[in-house]
Write a structure and sequence with these properties.
Elements: H1 2-11, H2 18-29, H3 35-47, E1 51-54, E2 59-62, E3 73-77, E4 83-86, H4 89-101, E5 111-115
Parallel strand pairs: 3-5
Antiparallel strand pairs: 1-2, 3-4
The structure holds zinc ion (ZN) (2 copies).
Length: 121
């Protein structure tokens, strides 16, 4: 089941919701797979860094570089949904530092930029 969920997730070109993935896995396996069980598996992937959650889209993408830990920055196109991911440790480090300066312990900064991608603008 985990493998099926991961394969479906990796196949999406855009961030996919648990419902998108449940539908895809159901189609492939010829049986109804509940979004709830997909959610649980996605959470597991996120905590083991195999997938990343795009908060503002309420969706997930497969992690291209599961071996390295970054605070990923997502650029999300409002027109086509295409999501690009950047790593800029200087920028995300600055967010962590600003939080620390405010006496706040940041566990997971979420940096997402909405707008239009190169194809849509
Ligand atoms: Zn990253
Ligand atoms: Zn676009």
């Amino acid at each position: 089941m985990r493998q099926a969920v991961f394969d479906a997730l990796a196949n999406f070109e855009k961030p996919a919701s648990a419902y998108d993935i449940a539908e895809e896995v159901s189609k492939r396996q010829g049986r109804r797979v509940a979004a709830n069980s997909v959610y649980r598996i996605l959470d597991l992937f996120v905590s083991s860094n195999l997938a990343m959650r795009v908060e503002s889209a309420n969706a997930y993408v497969a992690n291209q570089h599961p071996g390295c830990l970054h605070d990923c920055i997502f650029l999300i196109c409002d027109s086509c949904g295409q999501t690009t991911h950047l790593d800029d440790d200087k920028l995300s480090g600055g967010v962590r530092e600003a939080a620390a300066n405010a006496g706040f312990a940041a566990t997971r900064p979420v940096i997402e930029v909405r707008g239009k991608c190169g194809d849509c603008s």
